Amino acid sequence: MLLFLFRLLASVPLPVLHAIGRVAGRIVYALPGKYRDRLQANASQAGYNSPAFARAAAAQAGAMIMELPKVWLRNTESLSKVVTDDDEVVKSALAEGRGILYLTPHLGCFEITARYLTQHGPITVMYRPPRKPVLAPVMDAARNTSGLKAVPANMQGVREFVRALKRGEAVGMLPDQVPTQGDGVWAPFFGRQAYTMTLAGKLAAQTGVAVILTAGERLPHGQGWRIHYVRLPDPLPANPADQALLINEAMEALIRRFPTQYLWSYKRYKVPEGAPPPPSTGL
Fold first, then answer.
1. DSSP-based three-state secondary structure for 125
2. Residue 152 neighbours by CB distance under 10 Å
3. How far apart are CA 160 and CA 114, in angstroms?
4. Is the Cβ–Cβ distance between 248 and 187 less than 8 Å?
5. Contact in structure between 151 and 126 (CB atoms under 8 Å)
6. N or C: which end of the chain has fewer CB within 10 A?
7. Could you report the average pLDDT of every consecutive run of 10 residues in the chain (283 residues)?
8. Which residues pair with residue 227 across a beta bridge?
9. How many helices (H) and strands (E) does the chain have?
10. In the beta sheet, which residues pair with residue 215?
């Protein structure tokens, strides 16, 4: 039933989906609760204090949710609406022939980037299985895309990543996903300590691949998306804390290009169970 609903929504024009999503996002934001409080607090932490900004960010979050059926189930149609001015960044990295690690934060349409990158060759991405079994058929359909391989976010997935990178292929992951105990370090993110994953730095050090930060900016009026690429320094710093700081600072700079499209409601500053306490100077 849910898959049927997603297929139905996927047939709706993208401008309509975005418009519905923006209205829904503003309505949800208008309701007092943890979602609204967290969005306001995280945006304010980054210096975006105005109510108008928070409402715009909530509207973009709604658009992000409503575009998913289109991106997941109408791959060719969605890719026809993608543009970029940064292809040379990717082509230069591909010419080196040593694999690419793409880091895609919760910014814009982070589901479109990997699909767009399949034009350059196969890409392996990590996913977390849905908590609700009813979502499984939808997720399976979403992952059924030529050139795109999804692996679980566990040690099995990490091994798949290493194998893909050693073959000279590409992998993609969310660098602002809060890691589990022992898989991260504390590093500033918009001026506050955030538990930051170390996996990206470990993979880059182990395989010697290029590291590219990427995001899909949502264009106005349902026109589609613009892909941004930022090549990170090569090699990354050897120290995990320095790696995390560099990646967080690069994410901050990219987010500030179109800040309302960052998922400010994400629990970026939570303390995972068993993780060491954050430095007192960062809070």
1. strand
2. 13
3. 16
4. yes
5. yes
6. N
7. 86 98 98 97 98 98 96 94 96 94 96 94 85 71 78 89 94 92 90 95 91 98 97 92 96 98 96 87 47
8. 84, 216
9. 11, 9
10. 228
